[in-house]
Design brief:
Radius of gyration: 21 Å
Number of strands: 2
Shape: globular
Distance between the termini: 32 Å
Structural class: mainly alpha
Number of helices: 18
Strand content: under 5%
Oligomer: single chain
Length: about 400
């Protein structure tokens, strides 16, 4: 992955940086779902309008701070742009209805906003902290909902799994946000970029929320991501070596002492058949793959949709991309993931590389049971952050000094 020098004449005032952080929060908000019960009497159509319009607002704000269209060259964003072009080619046939073109427009604004804020993504470790703050704000809303309406948040109709009820967030979304916040905070602490107080305030409550969601994908992604990131720091970080040794010891003891509890938590009351077919996902996947397709549908897909097939969620990024964007989309997704992996391997050990490896590993593992690599989603935001973490730092040291002065070492 190659990057050009960041433009040194873009505004870097504290006010501009606050706008960039707000734009990022809007992009995260845009990717929230709107399915589920809420304690607030807001119609689902209004919730959808709020999330969908936020990306337009984000684009306008980004354009206001970058009116001369200065970009930071990015292989990741270039490949996303190619994916958008392919999505348009598959959506113009309207096999998925007019909604496909609306989703393409949203995807275009999403990618355009990332291009517009790219000049400020230099030496972006400080932005990792902001990403954690945004995720913590979402987790705080889930925790408040759990306190004021525990019966709704842990409803039996949802198998007792924790859902967001202030804003309707699914258990998988809550689990994802908790896992990413936990993993990034731990990595910042291992590299002495945040305090133990921040770790306690963030990781403690987030772990409780993660356990209550019973989300196996998020838990596995957290463990795998931390393992990969930790191994990347073994030779250069003494704290990481000590923590990894203790983590292995605790994990072994936990399996021995809490094996029955862990097995019950993983099964979530499911029988063996339901567990092995991934809660029915495999049946949907088989039906999707068995669907007869024309050569055009195989090459370019049927257009952007709501990531469902015959009314059931696809819950697999690769099959969702194949269904909507065809082999063309699958190839582009492979290319941008491969680009990120190669860039991460080629970089010397550093805190930025460790955080990027965690995000890439998490998204790769989650892609098997969650959709999101082919359209505007939190996963593409995580990977965008990873791509900027792996970028060659700019020699614009004055900007870096001002950022460090504004952002203390703690996350909170």
């Amino acid at each position: 992955m190659t990057y050009g020098r960041i433009a040194t004449d873009v505004a870097r005032t504290p006010q501009t940086l606050r706008v960039i952080r707000f734009v990022w929060a809007l992009l995260v908000f845009n990717t929230l779902g709107s399915l589920g019960a809420s304690v607030l009497p807001i119609p689902r159509s209004v919730l959808q309008m709020l999330t969908m319009s936020s990306v337009g607002f984000a684009f306008v704000l980004a354009l206001a701070v970058n009116p001369r269209f200065k970009f930071r060259p990015s292989a990741y964003l270039l490949l996303l742009t190619l994916l958008l072009v392919g999505s348009l080619a598959s959506s113009v046939r309207l096999q998925s209805g007019w909604g496909a073109l609306f989703r393409c427009a949203r995807f275009g604004l999403f990618i355009g906003t990332l291009w517009l804020i790219s000049p400020w993504m230099d030496n972006v470790l400080h932005f990792v902290k902001h990403h954690v703050r945004v995720l913590c704000a979402l987790l705080a809303s889930v925790a408040i909902g759990l306190v004021i309406a525990p019966g709704m948040a842990l409803a039996e109709i949802n198998d007792g799994r924790l859902f967001g009820v202030l804003w309707p967030l699914t258990a998988t979304q809550v689990g994802q946000y908790a896992a990413i916040a936990i993993g990034l905070t731990i990595l910042l602490w291992l590299n002495k970029l945040t305090t133990g107080r921040s770790v306690a305030l963030i990781c403690g409550p987030a772990t409780v929320l993660l356990v209550l969601t019973h989300t196996r994908t998020a838990t596995a992604g957290l463990v795998a991501g931390l393992a990969v990131a930790g191994l990347s720091m073994l030779l250069t970080n003494a704290r990481a070596r000590k923590v990894l040794a203790w983590a292995i010891a605790v994990a072994v003891a936990g399996v021995v002492l809490l094996g029955a509890f862990l097995q019950a938590w993983l099964l979530r009351g499911q029988d063996k058949e339901n567990f092995t077919n991934l809660t029915g996902r495999a049946k949907v996947w088989d039906r999707l793959l068995d669907l007869p397709r024309t050569w055009y549908e195989q090459a370019f897909g049927t257009g952007l949709s709501n990531k469902s097939f015959d009314g059931l969620p696809i819950d697999n990024s690769w099959l969702a991309v194949y269904h909507e964007q065809g082999y063309m989309g699958v190839v582009i997704v492979v290319l941008f993931l491969l680009t990120l992996v190669v860039a991460a391997i080629s970089r010397p050990p550093s805190p930025a590389r460790a955080c990027a490896l965690f995000l890439i590993s998490y998204c790769l593992l989650a892609s098997y049971t969650e959709a999101g690599l082919g359209d505007a989603s939190p996963y593409l935001l995580h990977l965008a952050l990873a791509s900027w973490l792996l970028a060659t730092p700019s020699p614009d040291r004055d900007a870096l000094v001002s950022v460090r002065a504004e952002h203390p070492s703690g996350v909170t």
